[in-house]
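pinging the channel bc i need a second pair of eyes. not urgent but kinda urgent?? the chain im working w is below, pasted from the shared doc
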Amino acid sequence: MSEQPSAASATTTSNRDFGGLRVVSFESRQAAETAKLVTKAGGIAISAPSLREVPLEQNDEALAFADRLVAGGYDVVVFMTGVGTRYLFAAMETRYERERLVSALNKTKVVARGPKPVRVLTEFGISITVTVPEPNTWRELLAAVEDAGGVAQARVAVQEYGVSNDRLIAEFTRYASQVDRVPVYRWALPENRKPLLDALAQIIARTIDVALFTSATQAHHVLQVAREEGIEDEVRAGFAEVIVGSIGPVCSEALEELDMSPDFEPTRPKLGVLVGECAQRAPDLIVAKRRAIRESGPSLVRTSNSIAADPNDSTLMKACRREPTDFTPIWLMRQAGRYMQEYREVRAHHSFMELCKNPDLAAEVTVTAVERLGVDAAIIFSDILLIVEPMGLGLDYTRGAGPTISRIVRTAADVDRMNEVDPNASLGFVMDAIRTTRDSLSPGIPLIGFSGAPFTLASYIIEGGGSKNYIETKRFMYDDKGAWDSMMSLISRSVASYLNAQVEAGCQILQLFDSWVGCLSPTDYETYVLPHTKSVIDAVANDVPLIHFGTDTATLLDLQAKAGGSVLGVDHHTPIGPVCDRFPKLAIQGNLDSVTLFSSTDVIRRATEQILADVGDRPGHIFNLGHGILPATPVDNVLALVDMVHELSSK
């Protein structure tokens, strides 16, 4: 019996918020307002309107009600919703003046269910006999009417909305002499179902954390669409792992009847209160719910095909050394990230920087990803920009905006103020995380450490954050090569020290991320970058495999190989087979397009088969993506990919 909610919000006094949890709302009329509230409360808002209001164009029931009303044919009139009251009057006023309708109603017992019809009735000058306070169901409405004298032998009319409440009508019918239903509009499925279908797909893929329902009809419509699409069982299973928030008791009752029991109901049935209070409680609720699921169900830990007792004898290490392997090893860039429920549970309680700087938490998400996916390596949870902070440059991560550097470098004087980094002194938390992770990992799983490459770090330092064209970076590079080389040398020495410290702490493999170097021409790379990148790689211990990875580097691969590294990372823009032929002395890593993981498993399998076929029997292939896993990637597809690579490549 709850209608679309008011957007009146109650501001919370707590600083707790959703913490980056993904929140879907099935609200329609106030979809935009709901999304704003969710975003303001620290959530990632997903709007999936599940209904639309369809006024009854030829409302014979409303006109028949008006005829009986002005003729004195009712003793009790029940108004259920504010919007419905307005619709009803609009229909009746095509036949009668409002004054005549108001006069007739003031001769009856008028019942208003909640504040919304009260506001409309008061505006129209109608005296209200009974007000049913919120929250309420049909039971509270009946009790309020009974307290006011009941409906024994009375002639009753009930203004309805959407779906009729048969139980309320049945109870009135037991005592009243006459009960008329007065429909004024009905609910229909949205004309554009794509947002709803996309949300259901995300629920199935377990990339939704919280679902907000603001009416009973929404719940019915969500399952109706799932049923029509043949995915009801999968949707129900997905909802079992989601925190379900309900606006109030009527909505909760409907969810209970549909076997989608709500986990949360606000203290008042208001949209703002629902979002605000849910934001405070959802992080704890999601952790508790999923922990219970994990403890009661089958283990989510998957066993990698790596069975070595020593990480140096693992399949991945053999591939790095271009030794024969029984199957192609796989790990994935950004394999511990927002696409995983377990990661979002942790992030709901901690900022990104807290997670990076807390060794126990960083180790937890690193190990969880390996165990959940069954991949052949762990990569320490960290960030390439942590190293710029001890250089004396301010680093911050703004929600939704990415990293920003407050003390940017644009001149030779700025370079002179930069500090060389002692990683054990200023980045000790990374080394602690590596040690904790190494102790927690299975012995045969190698641990990958990493750093940003000098050019990519320099670009962040100069641009102050992300960039599309790297104007300031290239201007500085071209205009003052002396200052550029001085800065790059300082960065290179710091990166080399950082990587060696990670090896000493327990990493068996290193990766150098040159994510932005693809913006350069080969001539610029050779002149301004290659000497510095080579100096880093030359300084790293010779017995430690180093993966040299960049994006958009099809024209730079020969120069990257010249810079060094035992493994060359290839993004998805470059066919991998010819790269293997060009660099027979290097292991090759890559290179499935990350977006492929949003497709069907058949598409993923064909793409995986193609990459494996392109590599053929050449030793030294490490399967990976062309870049990191994207946040909304379905976890099931990632699990399927890992299994496919192991299965299809097994000798």
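so The longest strand covers residues 155-160. and The domain at 54-188 is CATH 3.40.50.10090 (Rossmann fold). — does that match what u expected or am i reading it wrong
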